[in-house]
Amino acid sequence: MIDSTSSSASPNIWIFSTSYNHFTPSRGSQDSSRSAADASFPDKGPRRRCALVVDDVSDVTDMLSVLMTHAGYEVATASSAPEAIALAKENQFDLVISDIGMPEMNGYQLAEVLRGLADYETVPMVAVTGYSMFDDRNRSLNAGFNEHVTKPIDPRAFLDLIEQL
User: Fold this and answer.
1) Phi and psi torsions of 122, nearest 5°
2) Arithmetic mean of pLDDT over the chain
3) Which end of the chain is least crowded, N or C, by CB within 10 Å?
4) Which of 102-106's residues contact partners 24+ apart within 8 Å by CB, and which partners?
5) Whole-model pTM?
């Protein structure tokens, strides 16, 4: 079962809670002793890892949100790079997952802006994108992403990758 609620402090932050734990990483250290009910966002009690998911396609943000929630993350979503920047300035995320091809401002530009923020110099950032040409991975890495993953993603491999960052 998955429950979602909107944060009263910011209507752009959604809290997803689940008791289903099927898509956990196959290796790495997840603290399974904390239940979803113990978590709060951003800082009201025990703190779970927090992820920001950015994509202009709501189905993608929904899928990644559910996957990351199953892996033990609190998840905030943004449908554009400017919205993601505003959320990043208001909250400290432990992980940023972003599409590249978005209107207004692309994922490369988002990564460069986030890397310029003091709190995001070393935060792991993963590009999850349909861009798969020979130079797209290098463009992602040069913009500030730690990894470049092409869609469609394998959930288990993706979570293993996240745990290695």
Assistant:
1) -120, 5
2) 82
3) N
4) 102/54, 102/55, 102/56, 103/56, 104/80, 105/80, 105/81, 106/81
5) 0.74
